[in-house]
Structures are given as C-alpha cells and as structure tokens.
Specification:
Elements: H1 5-11, H2 18-43, H3 50-70, H4 72-100, H5 105-115, H6 117-131, H7 136-146, H8 150-165, H9 169-223, H10 230-254
Length: 260
C-alpha cells in the first residue's frame, strides 16, 4: 500500500524497516484511540447513547490516529530540509573557497561539517561512510538518493561529476550557489507579500474581535438581560488564544528557514 515508505524513512533519518514502522504506527494509534475512548466514556457516562457513540467513534478515531502517525516521516523530512536550507548558501561558498585553495574534496567536506552545525551533519554522513570503507563517489551518490533537499542534491551532483570526470568544480558549483540564492530571494519576497493579508486578518480576528467584540457583547447583554459569567468569559479567552496560536503557527510555518 505504501511502496515509497522505505525511501521516506531513509530520507527522514528513521533507519527501520517499513513493516516495523507500520507496526509501531498501528500500536500508537491503538493506544491513543483507547485513551480517547476512556476519556469519552467518562464524559458520556450518564448518556444513554454512550455505547453507540463509542462503537461508532472507535474505528473513526483509530483511522485518524493511524494516518496522523503515518505522516511522521513527512514531518521529519520537512524538518531536515529546513535544516539543510538554513546554511546551504554559506556552506556552499565555504566549500568553493576550500576547493579553490587547493584543499582535497574529502578534507573540504570535513571542514564544512565542522564549521556549519545544521548542514554539517549531512556532510558527516558522507564522511562516516568513507571512513567505514565506502568510496567517496559511492558515499556522495548515496547521499544524493537520500537527501530531502533539492538544493543540496544539486551541490552533491556537482561534487559527483567532479569526482567522475576530474573537472574543476569551482565554477560549476558557483553557478549552482547563485541559482539557489536567486530562488531563496524570490521565496523571501513571496513571504513578504503573504505577510500583508496575514497581518490584516490577524488584526481583525486576533485583536479587534477579542477587544471590541467582547465589549459589545457585554453591552448588549445588559439590554437583553443576558447573564455572562466568568466561565463564559474564560471560554471566550481560550478560543481567542487558540486562534492567535494558530496564526502564529501558520506564519512561522510560512517563514523561510534560510539565512540571507
């Protein structure tokens, strides 16, 4: 059912068999569903429809939990891709300087891994394979297959071509870095344009509605003899807090991960 799951697990850094991952996902979904069913049973303990609700809810919640945990490799892949993108331009330029200074490719990769924390560990994977006896060409080729970042893959392709042909890597790698910079600049401008409507909706929903809306609700409640207690106000505050948190999460998720 999931033919690409093995590659996803490797790209996410989860070195386990797909069958074992599916087994863990099923168990996690079962435990979460059981816990939610116990909570739902406690809430509906006085309801006559408790048994029917639990029987109907269990398979639905179980499937939702299963597909939720099944997305864990995708989340880790996105996180690894953001880590790589954070310093890929600086690491690429550092690598160009090292190679143009006459440093061998292996030593240049070691220096990159030591000077850049986020992207350095992915160069460490190549170095670790070479130290265990794999040729540098095979180690780079394996990293090309497993890396979740297209930009990092472009850099590794240039390194691999240089290893195969013996050509000078400096100029071709510099072209790739400049292309990555242009793409990041375009993405940064798109993010700036997206912030304008986000800021407007945030002001309306997360600032104006909680203040003016609550004030107007209290004023109107005096005319229609509606009693608003502390519990209702706390519930409104909780709803508005959740809305603001959602805005923060959405804006943070849209923000480019790299440094300019």
């Amino acid at each position: 059912m999931y033919p690409g799951l093995n590659l996803k697990l490797l790209q996410a850094g989860m070195y386990e068999e797909p069958e074992e991952f599916i087994k863990k996902t099923l168990l996690s979904a079962f435990y979460m569903t059981t816990g939610l069913m116990m909570f739902l049973a406690a809430v509906l303990s006085r309801s006559t429809m408790m048994k029917e609700v639990l029987i109907f809810s269990f398979p639905v919640i179980f499937m939702l939990m299963f597909f939720y945990f099944l997305k864990l490799p995708d989340v880790k892949i996105m996180r690894r891709e953001r880590e790589i993108s954070r310093n890929i331009v600086f690491a690429g330029r550092f690598l160009i300087i090292e190679l143009q200074s006459g440093v061998p490719i292996y030593n240049a990769l070691v220096n990159v891994s030591k000077n850049f924390k986020d992207i350095g560990k992915y160069f460490d994977e190549i170095i670790g394979q070479v130290d265990m006896g794999t040729t540098l060409e095979d180690a780079v080729n394996r990293e090309i297959e497993l890396t979740p970042s297209n930009n990092f893959r472009k850099i590794l392709w240039q390194i691999l071509n240089s290893l195969k042909t013996g050509a000078d890597i400096g100029q071709s790698l510099d072209v790739v870095i400049e292309q990555i910079v242009r793409e990041q600049t375009i993405e940064s401008k798109d993010y700036g344009r997206k912030l304008n409507p986000f800021a407007m909706f945030y002001m309306i929903i997360a600032v104006i509605m909680p203040t003016l809306g609550t004030t107007m609700l209290i004023v109107f409640s005096t005319f229609i003899s509606l009693k608003i207690g502390l519990t209702a106000l706390l519930a409104l505050a909780g709803v508005f807090a959740v809305i603001q948190l959602m805005f923060v999460i959405v804006i943070k998720g849209q923000r480019p991960s790299y440094e300019m």
